[in-house]
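Dear H.,

Thanks for agreeing to be a second pair of eyes. The structure we're designing against is below in token form, covering all 478 positions.
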């Protein structure tokens, strides 16, 4: 009996006549050799590290924590991001999308968390943690119902949202490329931007020149080379390694028992709904990229992992967790679709949370270097969205109008960050997320133009076979 074949990118490869398609392991479920597993997982960690530690770096000083306490929050965020990622990739029971899906601290909660805990010290952190626990448990209960929204995400919606995810992330890469801290003297300096450009060129060159596994870890190699170049340039900070402890477990409820305030809970419940919306869009995007479309059950499991990870996170002094879209770009670029690779990354995150000195080694990568690589990563997400839109039959009906309006509204927070400055702060949690607003607009317009008052099989101008070309048929609303 011949060995069971695995999925391959080479479409010309002949299938094994002695095995059925059902016997083949999907690339998402493949395990790689240990070295490839570790290096590919480390690449995911490098891509998302700055995004995980940035929220505690902002929230800690805002609530009045010391530098040492803020560093403790950062380690706790790495630890809890690892737990949430393991829940998402490996899963158990009906928890986990079981896709190469990375979870980390959500940026959506930064503004309300600062508002809740500002200058309140440990009490502020305790109130934040209490609100996160309640909002997360509510999200866990709502997951089986929220996942049914997947029927309202045809290609015209998913393509728009995926494109917005990539475009919305690009300003993050641009900020990193300038140095990351707008108040610093060297922010936007020619040195920082040049290092970002050098790293970008290195990554592109490695992708062009290398083959096989080395090509797949081109981002990681680019970050290493960029960091080595940055040392003589003088933008690599070794202070974090000198001050880091070798071992540091995130003591449960380090800042005191959680406290529960109604206003704080309401704010974090809104954040949770935003996170669930973005995670749903991210799972749909990732499902298309790895060729395992996310159905209702997948999304339900993914949302349960998101919310359970978020509920557990405050126990270890972490914040609300949600999908990290930048890692979707890494999957799209490297073509490494194994969820066990991302699980390895989750394990690395847990170890980094337990070993601050190891975490500080990852932190050696200067933000300009990370920004140069981020331009490729986030641009890959936008490119995947454009590919999806190519299947959305934009020439038919009002699909092009749906895309135009949704992208336009979704770009407002990016193109005009102060556009909603006169609105209530609670609304800004949603309005300041271009992904969320664009997603809502796309869904509503798709319902209005393609569902309400129209039979799915009787669209004006439709021809036989069009549904196959355009993707999934719309579902009627009853």
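And this is the sequence the design step returned. I haven't edited it by hand at all.
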């Amino acid at each position: 009996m011949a060995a069971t074949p695995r999925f391959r990118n080479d479409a010309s490869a002949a299938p094994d006549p002695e095995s059925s398609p059902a016997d083949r392991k999907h690339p998402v479920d493949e395990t790689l050799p240990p070295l490839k597993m570790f290096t590919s997982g480390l690449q995911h960690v490098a891509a998302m590290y700055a995004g995980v530690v940035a929220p505690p770096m902002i929230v800690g000083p805002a609530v009045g924590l010391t530098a040492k306490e803020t560093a403790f929050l950062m380690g706790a965020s790495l630890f809890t991001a690892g737990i949430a990622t393991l829940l998402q990739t490996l899963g158990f029971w009906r928890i986990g999308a079981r896709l190469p899906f990375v979870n980390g601290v959500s940026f959506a909660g930064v503004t309300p968390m600062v508002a809740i805990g500002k200058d309140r010290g440990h009490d502020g952190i305790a109130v934040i943690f209490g609100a996160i626990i309640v909002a997360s448990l509510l999200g866990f209960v709502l997951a089986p119902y929220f996942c049914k929204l997947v029927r309202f995400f045809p290609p015209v919606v998913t393509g728009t949202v995926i494109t917005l995810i990539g475009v919305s992330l690009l300003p993050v890469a641009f900020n990193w490329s300038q140095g990351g801290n707008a108040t610093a003297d060297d922010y936007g300096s020619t040195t920082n931007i040049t290092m970002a450009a050098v790293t970008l060129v290195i990554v592109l060159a490695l992708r062009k020149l290398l083959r096989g596994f080395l090509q797949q870890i081109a981002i990681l190699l680019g970050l290493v080379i960029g960091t080595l170049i940055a040392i003589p340039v003088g933008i690599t900070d070794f202070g974090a390694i000198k001050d880091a402890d070798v071992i540091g477990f995130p003591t449960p409820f380090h800042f005191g028992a959680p406290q529960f305030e109604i206003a704080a809970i309401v704010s974090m419940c809104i954040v949770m709904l935003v996170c669930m919306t973005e995670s749903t869009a991210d799972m749909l995007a990732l499902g298309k990229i790895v060729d395992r479309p996310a159905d209702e059950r997948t999304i339900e499991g993914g949302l349960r992992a998101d919310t359970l990870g978020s509920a557990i996170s405050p126990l270890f002094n972490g914040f609300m967790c949600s999908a990290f879209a930048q890692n979707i770009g890494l999957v799209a670029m490297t073509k490494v679709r194994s969820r066990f690779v991302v699980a390895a990354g989750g394990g690395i995150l847990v170890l980094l949370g337990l070993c601050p000195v190891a975490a500080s080694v990852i932190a050696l990568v200067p933000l300009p270097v990370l920004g140069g690589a981020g331009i490729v990563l986030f641009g890959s997400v936008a490119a995947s969205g454009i590919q999806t839109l190519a299947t959305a039959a934009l020439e038919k009906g009002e699909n092009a109008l749906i895309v135009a309006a949704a992208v336009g509204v979704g770009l407002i927070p990016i193109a005009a960050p102060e556009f909603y400055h006169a609105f209530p702060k609670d609304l800004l949690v949603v309005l300041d997320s271009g992904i969320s607003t664009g997603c809502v607009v796309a869904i509503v317009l798709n319902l209005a133009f393609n569902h309400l008052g129209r039979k799915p099989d009787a669209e004006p101008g439709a021809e036989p076979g069009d549904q196959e070309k355009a993707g999934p048929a719309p579902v009627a609303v009853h």
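Two observations from my side: The first strand starts at residue 103 and ends at 105. The chain is about 65% helix and 0% strand.

Warmly,
E.
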